[in-house]
Fold this sequence. Notes:
Number of strands: 27
Strand order of the largest sheet: 9-10-13-14-22-19-18-17
Structural class: alpha+beta
Distance between the termini: 56 Å
Shape: globular
Amino acid sequence: MPLPPEDRHLSPRTGWTRAHWEAVADELLTAVRPYASPGQALIDLPGTGPSWSGRRSDGLEGYARTFLPAALRIAGADGDDPHGLLDAYARGLDTGTRTPTAERGLTDGDPESWPLITDRGQAMVEAASIAFALRLTRPWLWDRLDAPVRDRVGRWLADALHRTPNDNNWWLFPLSVGGFLAEAGIEEHAAGAAVRRGLERIERFHLGDGWYTDGRPRAFDHYNGWALHLYPVLHAHLAADRALLDEYGSRLAAHLADQAHLFGGDGAPVHQGRSLTYRFAATAPLWAGALTGHTPLAPGATRRIASGALRHFVDRGAIDERGLLTLGWYGPEPRLVQPYSGPASPYWAGSGFLGLLLPPDHPVWTDPELPAPAEERDTVRILARPNWLVQSTAADGLVRLHNHGSDDQPADQVRPDDPHYARLAHSTATGPTHDGPADNHLALLTDGAASERGRIEPVGCGPDWAASLSRPRVRGEELAGVTVTTVTLVHGADEARVHLVAGAAPGTGVRQTGWAVAGRTAGAGPATAPRPGARASAGASADGGRLLSELTGLHGFTGAALLTVPGGTAFGPEAAVPVLGGVVGGVVGGVLDGVLGDDVLDDGAALFACAARLTGTALLPPLEVRLEATGAGAGVGADGTRQLRLTWPDGTTHRIGIGPGTVSVAGSVSVSHSG
């Protein structure tokens, strides 16, 4: 892709400027034109197969999701359209709405018609992008359309006002359509009602501090930014509704204070949640904050984070040799693609070009870049609403998200674990395994099967720890009476994971996995030398030490191994993960110089603990973390909890109390859950 020269004076971190954003947008928008239908109504991109909505819907997706970044590019240039994109999209509006159809496939007899908007149908999603694009380009497109075309487009869009969306961020799609139609004078009453209804519905999802759950009880992911914040704020901005913008803008600002910590020093957003193929759409809320003035970030920090994310993916092959965004993370990666995604789904990333609405002389484009939070200093940040613990290190720019509160489980059932939600930890440099043992997971091994985490119940959090309770499941069934209470503690680049397994039968196998590191090559890495009878330890390395993963047993684990991951992860074709093993009731007389008692208490609860490390630097001291019992009774408190002292390599200590469903750290006691 031809790009302008870097400007390291203005952008010392990324070298990229507004001109780079314009160049990438132009490349993406012109590259899809050969795949447009003769009447420009559908953009039918190549791919391995259609989404579950069918090829016609996928073609509409190609039209809508490229129309939005085209609108941002052209509106940001005050209507300048050297590539004639608006003429093509105008033709598509005319052709696509002549005879909307319920036919899912494309036929020789009808290769152009748009699908009807139905209850919970994908066309409702795409209607929102079209509505925003029309709103942004109204002086140059909508106002110049012939009246019959405007009438047909208005009728097609208006169906979104009268159809039922999925009960999650989808409520914002009729809202987005309603915002445009109300301004255009089409079904104004229904349009206004759709806006109000959408805002009312998402209010149920807002848990405070700028965090929404996406419909389900605990579904926290990137949809917070690129949908649940973006759509209300952009609507309020375009409507010039100051009261609405103040309300939703303040929520956005609170969210950005956290979200800024979820980008690595290399620009990568945390690899967690669904629809990860949207990639740099994660920058859209950053731009929305700058656009509306509702952001805690300095202009130079906003651009640095956003440009870092865009460049991260451009440099790593997210755009293929045809100039098309692929379904994946870097290159194609089918395992992270949801069934609703078609070949054009990645173009949701187009919302990331929102910053082009800011004029070239805005400080977000003219101020020098400032460091991202992950570059400034080692940081630990607690995100209380999702019950996440975010840990970043400046030396390697890595961000690690320790997950004790997002599972994407429905309210009325427990589904199989989703690797992008169920893991104990996610990061900006690793992706979950999809084959073989789950990474970053504690599994109970029964009848030849490994347990899943299931629903995650937050137990508590503090300045440098977070905890949760889970009820392990095997083959879709909960293990009766068994719970796992887990607390993660972090310090610098290191972490400790302490688990209390309650109700499991003696002899039950236990497996703890660490970070799965991936690259062109992956294999054994450094591991702490075992002390006789004390520790099991394993390490993994990617690309000759570019990324290192280490796992060391502190209590309960008696064996260690290194496993290769079939097919790698989204971060590389080869991956390796360190593994520890133990058995409930398998430790007698304690470990670590005998400072802990037997691993099974009188109440049948067994303690397992390990230290873990994910790092991009080899300049760290050995992962020598100590765990000791404190108090009388081999570390058992008066309330029956295990009382522990954790000592990090630099001598810093934490005091931990852990029982079934309850955790305290350094005297801060969590909410207790019944086991």
